[in-house]
Amino acid sequence: MSELTGLTIAAARAALEKKEFSALELTEAYLGEIEGANGALNAYVAVTRDKARDMARACDERLARGEGRPLEGIPLGIKDLYCTQGVHAQACSHVLDGFLPRYESTVTANLWSAGAVMLGKLNMDEFAMGSSNETSYYGPAINPWRASGSEEKLVPGGSSGGSAAAVAARLCAGATATDTGGSIRQPAALTGTVGIKPTYGRCSRWGIVAFASSLDQAGPIARTVRDAAMMLGAMAGHDAKDTTSVDTPVPDYAAALGGSVKGMRIGIPREYRIDGMSAEIGALWDKGIDWLKASGAEIVEVSLPHTKYALPAYYIVAPAEASSNLARYDGVRYGLRVAGDDIIAMYENSRAAGFGAEVKRRIMVGTYVLSAGYYDAYYLKAQQVRTLIKRDFDSAFEKVDALLTPATPNSAFALGAMTDDPIAMYLNDVFTVTVNMAGLPGISVPAGFDARGLPLGLQLIGKPFDEANLFRLAQALEDAAGETPPAQRWW
Amino acid sequence: MDEMVRSAPKDKLIKGATGDWEVIIGLEVHAQVTSKSKLFSPASAEYGGAPNDHVSLIDAAMPGMLPVINEECVRQAIRTGLGLKARINLKSVFDRKNYFYPDLPQGYQISQFKQPIVGEGVVYLDMAEGEQIAVGIERLHLEQDAGKSIHDQHPSLSYVDLNRSGVALMEIVSKPDMRSADEAKAYVTKLRTILRYLGTCDGNMEEGSMRADVNVSVRRPGEPLGTRCEIKNVNSIRFVGQAIDYEARRQIDVIEDGGTISQETRLFDSRSGQTRSMRSKEEAHDYRYFPDPDLLPLEFDQPYVDALAAALPELPDEKKARFVADFGLSPYDAGILVGERVAADYFEQVAQGRDAKAAANWVINELFGRLNKDGVDIVESPVSAAQLGAIIDLVASGVISGKIAKDLFEIVWSEGGDPAEIVESRGMKQVTDTGAIEKAIDEVMAANPDKVAQAKEKPSMAGWFVGQVMKATGGKANPQAVNALLKDKLGLE
What we know:
The structure holds 2 protein chains of 2 kinds. Chain A is α/β, with parallel strands linked by helices. Chain A contains 16 helices and 11 strands. In chain A, about 40% of the residues lie in helices and about 15% in strands. The relative contact order of chain B is 0.09. The interface of A and B includes residues 105, 210, 241, 320 and 347 of A.
């Protein structure tokens, strides 16, 4: 690892300002790292070298004029789910083969106007459907972390597996990701990185390939809480092109960091102590409670009684929306087209060849739960559950400022370990989906390692649009846990 | 609920081989909203344009694109609802109607299913002989139009034009309140009139801005409703009538032959005048409606609706009532005049400061007749309201006779000009000079002594003399003066 790629966003930004090195040098350092690592980690599905260099040069000009913006010269990786003008944007699906958007997503456009540099597009589960990055058409991204003394390849989590792997392996300073049921927080937890899913409506969804529209949110994965705060500050904001985005000012998250958490009330939801939770996860959670207590926060036990219905309800709502959102991939206007004798055959051939097994499974589940005669029993019921889950959180937040839970039920697992058991895979999201169902912000923070030396994360859940307090609490955990060392380089 | 359904009067029943049948009709009219841009995208909603000229990234359903509601379309839907005297729902929801079709890029149509923007209302129809029928409106909702598949441009491929994709439509659903093809035609006509008054739809059926799905069933009078068939996309008022007549007769024949009607969707073939099966109920799509998660529920408050209501133009029913009350017109004449807003405005201009009945007669009989004859729209009428008013004034003041006035109208129609000047310069003034008239009478009497003798026996013979005198004076003699002088000279009462 070069010295430059070892820097956090905050540190690199400060050094750029002081002209310790140029934005182009920083970008070249990352491009070099990607060159050396991507064969093993498969974190990037497209590297935009020329574009990165051009952007970095423009950053240097601005820095030279003293006009550096918040992320001036910071090289980032972008999840393939984001539409980036003229650049690979295929949601890691075969069905979008060759698709080059003529438009730029609002969130990435925001990042570029904050001065960031694009290194390339990051691997992910196909259409963000998966928890291990194994459903990608481009093959799995690999977790830079390995169990001590093992050479077994582990998954980086998903769906933002490429983002998490790239950040953990220092192949970018930070990465964009998206989270529909845990797709930012679970991979962050599995790779020793920080990931925040902001409040639904905080970031524009415009130009991000839709999976489940009522749940999808953009967010960053970064090495530290401060870096995540800096990135979210640039990504967030109201967008008239997304009517579900909310017109409320974006606070200066980074500036809000460092404040005391003394007196803040932290809820511990008892229902999250699920059956069969490993002792390690339980111990991690207790450790987190102790850290926050030691920082002066008050710990309160709370109840979220409908928690157990969240995962099944999520796996009705998300596939239902997906089945409709993915109807546009029909081979008519863009992407893969497999000819057929008539239009129906062309649809069938294109979609059969274009979608992977997990995507097909969810389209079928979604189609089923919306069908005449089943709508009331499944979709409507799931929406009612969703209302109850929201209500649970509302009443909890009358008593507390934030909630602390584990981020995942386990650490990173081996490639292929769960591919034959979709239900086991879905259980990876058990602590995270509730947050999407309620539209709340949630952040995953590295909090230690399991017995095999693999990273584990804790999750903080906040009130709507209370990201600033979440960051502050997350930093308290980060401070207590100590700096996460980078994964030992084996690639 | 059957007693709530209106029963057709005897003369609207259809005769079958086994007795009388009543036809029950309900319509779903799709009306394109008059707006600059589409329902959820900034692309132009204008008719025409080169294929795929009016297409935004949203209309083409590019990945990651999101719909944003066009407020103008919402305003137009509310205004239409007010014009239909309907309940306006302050909260409504957009749903996705899912199905695959090449000209439906999203794979779903954004529509309103369970919670439409407009609820129940009513449209009044004036039928012949003063009969008025109230047709209930079930609902009005906003939805996206689809694109167009073009099959005749390539030997093996079809092309798709997305110009219409995403254009705002109002689907206006009537209750099954119509009992004859004439009523259905009157309903579509009246609906179109209301939409045009409001300026919410141009009503051009030939451009597809208005089309109707016609639901038809038949029953024995007094019996429960029969199974209905839906005839899709009928695109003219005449075809609506033809489709209903054909379909009602077809259903009666099927039932009288011992068969049953199966619920299905049918197509109307305007060349043969027949309907044919398109798909059965079993083949019907499962549209998997669900609320569109890209759009928040559509909400506005009562003051917003009230402001739109206050700015609504006078609508045909109100205008007609006013014409009857203020101008003393017959309901029939008033109904004709309000059929188009421009025609009503024209009439009002002519009637201003004049005898309204005379103005109505001139507009309806002379002007409309002449417009129809030449196929000219009233907005392009060669005779302006001011010119027609001047003609009427010349008659009223006795300068010209009614007969000459018609000639004058014809001159103004084809040549233009100031009617008074034309009368002056062409010597069309009626002769009121009794000397000249007397001279003409004397000549006629002198030439026809036998007729003079007859007239003394039979006073109605005076009419023949009037005709002769008018002929002799080139129609310019004042008829009242001729009458009076004749009676005098003939020695009649």
